[in-house]
Design brief:
Keywords: Glycoprotein, Glycosyltransferase, Transferase
Number of strands: 19
Oligomer: single chain
GO molecular function: glycosyltransferase activity
Structural class: alpha/beta
Organism: Dulcicalothrix desertica PCC 7102
Number of helices: 11
Strand content: 15-25%
InterPro entries: Glyco_transf_61_cat (IPR049625), Glycosyltransferase_61 (IPR007657)
Distance between the termini: 100 Å
Domain Glycosyltransferase 61 catalytic: 173-338
Amino acid sequence: MITTHLIVILLDINKGRMKSLLVALKNVLRQFPFIMPKGIVYSAKDWINENNYYTNWCTQTNSSWYINAYPENIIYYSKPNSIYNELNVYFKSELIKKHLEVNLYYFQGAYVFSDYGNVISKDNKVFDEFCHYFGTNDIKKGNIFKPFATFKTQIEKIKSNTAVIATPDSSNYYHWMMDSLPRLHLLEKFIDSIDYFIVPEKLYSFHIESLKYWGIEEDRLIKMKKTDKIYFENLYVPSLPGSVGNSPLWAVEYVRQKFINDNNDCLSKEYVYLSRINARERHIINENEVIELLRNRGFQIYEMSEHTLAEQIKIIRNAKIIVSAHGAALTNLLFASNCQVLEIFSLDCIRPDCYFTLASQLGLDYWYLMGENYHDGKKLAWGDMYLNTNNLTLTLDKILS
């Protein structure tokens, strides 16, 4: 009798071990050819249609699906203002932009890799449209295709309904506000049934504070590390809202309206300068001189990293003129109304695709000014600039005229 029970127990243990071994083996085989993903999926729609055809034929069930939210469209921008006779060449390519079709996808089984929120299919192929390269970089040059970067011998499996809102560089304020948060719009019909949201591991106070506007608390976040790979049985993946630095109007309007309410309505009209003194790079080396000039013209000086999200919204809602070097603080143009904007660029980093396009979508009066990357005959550190105060004065005079 006792011997029989022992045999049964041992068989159960062996069955349990065998089941675990089979699951582990299945996870390993799914990652063939092991060194790197098997390939790239350039259209999630086509992949779902092809796989559902096979699945339906075999099992008469529908697994993954997608819903179209916005069609492809083209947007035209007016030329920006400046003191220069000719438009800077970097702006010329930003006057016409195409925004791709936007969908919400549901995958019945898929992997998520890294804090970038990369999605890998069950057959070990990377979905290109969730990687935010969009022609600016080759996906095969990214970390996801480094040898054995995505290969794991043990993979956590999560059955709960989960949605990806992490995007490349979404620990950064701009990319969080303009790339990640708009994805919640595409999830709205399902948001109450979603248990967890995938975000990058590196979070700041603005991440947690902003998610509270959607009623999402920190205990509902799955924080992905750079090398994490997790298998999700029920995964919702919204399209990325646009190419890097070029969010479409629906994304801008959605996030803007979520944060603006009667409590942060325009109360006054300040002249505002946003300093980058605490930033890692792209400094104005003669900023003390610049600040003195601006203060003499009635400007208030702010370092946005020292303020809560609610305080930043209030500062920008009250602004009549905003002056800033190119940087994430200008993301707060999202909250501006009827104001003028002066963006200052280093010649090392001229990126009009972020804040020129944002200001244009909101109908703001946008100006730009170039700093100098040489001073006293020496090349400055990358991104740093010397700002000619005569040019600044001339630009301000034109803005105020």
